[in-house]
Amino acid sequence: MRKKFSALLVAAAATAAVTVPLSPAHAADGYDRCPDGYYCMFSGLDGTGDMIKLRGNTPDLAAFGMNDRAKSDWNRTASTIYLWSDAHYTGCTAVTSAGPTGKGNFFPTYQDFFSSVQFDGPGGPSCGTPPGEDR
């Protein structure tokens, strides 16, 4: 009986050692929430706030709750992204390039401004660069 009890005690101790809770992995935040292969828009500056991730043309950002709400973006696709001021690819466009330059805050004039997203164009009339504003 003593051997059985000792064996059970050792088994219980080994199980307890295995089930010690591990600290949770750090969740991605900011721009890092945007997965590779997606174009992401954020409602806050520097990739903060609400995020949507897109893999194709989006004629109306209202369907995703991001119409006139985006303040920053990251283009993690191979496509050039055309941001349209109005839904259904109307109004003027701004461009977000693919690659390392395709990440950042929108000019203040263009924060909370865009209503549709088009992959690879053809784009439309340029919204222009606001005077005195550099990215």
From TrEMBL:
Pfam families associated with the record: Inhibitor_I36 (PF03995)
SUPFAM superfamilies: gamma-Crystallin-like
Keywords: Signal
Keyword Disulfide bond set for record: no
Family matches, as InterPro entries: G_crystallin-like
Signal peptide as annotated in the record: 1-27
Keyword Signal appears in the UniProt entry: yes
Protein name, per record: Peptidase inhibitor family I36
